[in-house]
Amino acid sequence: MATVHIESKREEIANVVLMPGDPKRSEYIAKKYLKDCRLVNSVRGMTAYTGYYKDKLVTIFPSGMGNPSMGIYSYELFKEYNVDYIIRIGSCGGYSERLKLNDLILVSASYSESNYALSMGGYKDKLLFSSEYLNNIIESVARSLNKRLIRGNIYCSDAFYELEYNYRDRVKDKDVLGIEMESFALFSNARKFQKNASCLLTVSDLFFSTEKLSSAEREKKLDDMIELALESCLKL
Ligand code: HPA
Fold first, then answer.
1. 101 lines ligand 1 (CB under 6 A)
2. Is 198 within a domain?
3. Fewest 10 Å CB contacts: which of 77, 119, 124, 207?
């Protein structure tokens, strides 16, 4: 079975899927962490891999950038491939002055002005929640691995460069830690299909400082988040 955007057979996609944004990152994760892994999709260069992390079969599937792209892949994975759990593993810009570079955020809810949820589910909500079931697992695994997790809401924007304009005005009365671009479509699809979705984010930029991570540092620091997500899969 295949969909318009995914060429995999149904049995080639695991029940648990980790979704980085970048297809190169899915390859990096698969090659570094999975045993017996194989390429299960390369339509549009969205290289997805399925293999074993310890004894657990997982798929690493890239979402691409933005709600529309995440919306397509998570929709097809939940609906056509019977996936039950998706954890997004991405990066975000930090608004909150209590954040430092490399902090790890577990998203409680995603605030967005995107029309995605309205178009797909008729949901008028601007705030969509992640799965408490999955979040509890991730939090307890983080405690056991001694990893510090910050819980809070995120702003999910459709426009990366809105930052250069009026981002502070748009979110000043919203209780958000930072900005990314994919969680809202993911949570919307999870709600529509009554599945579980969560979102882990590494803070890659800070808007109150000029400090930035180099791409090499970014890759290395992302390992912390990837390991937490993979260890959490073992509990599913
Ligand atoms: N904006 C939107 N998404 C992001 C950013 C940003 O600054 N950084 C990482 N993901």
1. no
2. yes
3. 124
Please give the average per-residue pLDDT across 60-65, as a whole number.
98
- pTM, two decimals, is 0.96
**pLDDT at residue 37 is higher than 90:** yes
* CA–CA dist 135, 130 (Å, integer): 8
Query: Is position 36 annotated as part of the catalytic site?
Result: no
| Beta carbon of 92 within 6 Å of any ligand 1 atom | yes
Please give the pLDDT value at position 172.
Answer: 79
* Dihedral Cα 159, 163, 165, 168, nearest 10 deg: 120
For residues 215 and 181, the model is more confident at 181
For residue 48, the enclosing domain spans: 10-233
Q: Is residue 4 part of a domain?
A: no
Nearest residue by C-alpha to atom 2 in ligand 1:
180
pLDDT for the residue numbered 163: 67
Best residue for ligand 1 mutational test, from 22, 63, 89, 92 (most atoms within 8 Å of Cβ) = 92
Q: What is the pLDDT of residue 171?
A: 78
Amino acid at site 191: R
In a domain, 33, yes or no: yes
Length of the chain: 236
CA of 58 to the centre of ligand 1 (A): 26
Determine the residue of 99, 204, 207, 213 to mutate for testing ligand 1's pocket, defined as the one with the most ligand atoms within 8 A of the Cβ atom: 204
Query: Residue 74: is it exposed, middle or buried by C-beta count within 10 angstroms (0-12/13-18/19+)?
Result: buried
Name residue, tokens 């955020």.
105
